[in-house]
Design goal:
Tumour Suppressor Smad4; about 30% strand; Rossmann fold; disordered C terminus; alpha+beta; 6-stranded antiparallel beta sheet; binds magnesium ion; 10 helices; elongated
Length: about 300
């Protein structure tokens, strides 16, 4: 089957059920108590649960690299930000990652088609199958969902401290309008799998899965397992057309005069002066950006017929 039409519902077959689980609480959010509530039900599903609330990113990475070696699966109770922060260690270890969405941004959970009900999510941790998802690398840093320049950074300057939800707020026309008023179109050179595109944009985003920013779908058929990245960019048109273009992208993933789309495996983004880049919700990068797909980089626990992963 061509990789771009593989379904999410055919995880690897199973041998041995997972016995020991590392459950990690989001080190940055105030949901440690909520995460600790998950220990008993997971134990009730037959898992020996090692529960750790790391007090920062470094502790999170160190816990995965040490305790993670002694378990069959690693569950993260948190949002996309927690998972993105854990990626360097998860990539090193290659143990199946289970996601228990607790954060405000849960695009990975949507990309994995996780059930909404907590009971079903917990059952998956213990009994779900495993398949590998793509990640991206941006200037050598692993990326879960998306990288963007333009509007996201403008919103960040308006709303200090809300960077984690930047992409999500672009769904709101009022915020989009405020950001649009403050941003000037900038020249961008996009090199996608060897083909160069030059244009003036106010926003450029490269997306790994189907969903990012709390609902924008740059390509409705795109998935987190299709081995390609999706890019969309917005031109500086009158704001009512821009809002319409965003809505069109969100609803149909469609290209319009205002929105430019392409897909590829290796995308380089250059601007005439360095611009801040939003990487998985954090303003931590700068152009030029060298973005590459990392196909099937990480094993994750997903819904499916298979009950175990054999690890
Ligand atoms: Mg993809």
């Amino acid at each position: 089957m061509p990789r771009n039409v593989r379904a999410m519902t055919d995880p690897s077959p199973a041998a041995v059920p997972p016995r020991r689980l590392l459950l990690l609480a989001n080190p940055r959010a105030r949901n440690g108590a909520a995460a600790s509530d998950l220990v008993a039900p997971l134990a009730g599903l037959g898992l020996e649960v090692v529960f750790v609330e790391p007090d920062g990113i470094e502790a999170l990475l160190a816990t995965i690299r040490t305790t993670g070696r002694t378990v069959d699966r690693i569950a993260i109770a948190g949002g996309d930000g927690s998972i993105a922060a854990a990626l360097p260690a998860l990539l090193d270890l290659q143990k199946p990652l289970a996601v228990l969405p607790l954060g405000t941004a849960n695009d990975l959970a949507r990309n994995l088609r996780l059930p909404d009900a907590r009971e079903e999510q917990l059952r998956l941790v213990a009994r779900g199958g495993v398949r590998r998802i793509d990640l991206a690398s941006v200037n050598g840093r692993p990326v879960l969902n998306a990288v963007s320049i333009g509007l996201g950074a403008a919103v960040a300057r308006m709303h200090q401290g809300t960077a984690k939800r930047l992409l999500g707020v672009l769904n709101y026309p009022r915020v989009l309008y405020a950001a649009w008023r403050r941003i000037h179109p900038f020249r961008v050179e996009i090199t996608c799998d060897g083909t160069v595109h030059r244009d003036r944009f106010i926003h450029v985003a490269v997306v790994n899965g189907r969903f990012h920013g709390g609902g924008i779908e740059p390509r409705p058929s795109g998935t987190i397992t299709d081995g390609v990245l999706d890019l969309y960019a917005l031109r500086a048109d009158p704001v009512h057309r821009l809002v319409r273009a965003m809505a069109k992208l969100k609803i149909e993933g469609a290209e319009s005069d205002e929105a430019f789309r392409l897909q590829g495996r290796h995308i380089a983004i250059a601007t005439s002066r360095p611009r801040r880049a939003n990487i998985d919700g954090e303003l931590v990068g700068r152009t030029p950006l060298d973005i590459e797909i990392m196909p099937e980089a990480l094993p994750v626990v997903v819904p499916g017929r298979a009950e175990h992963d054999g690890s």
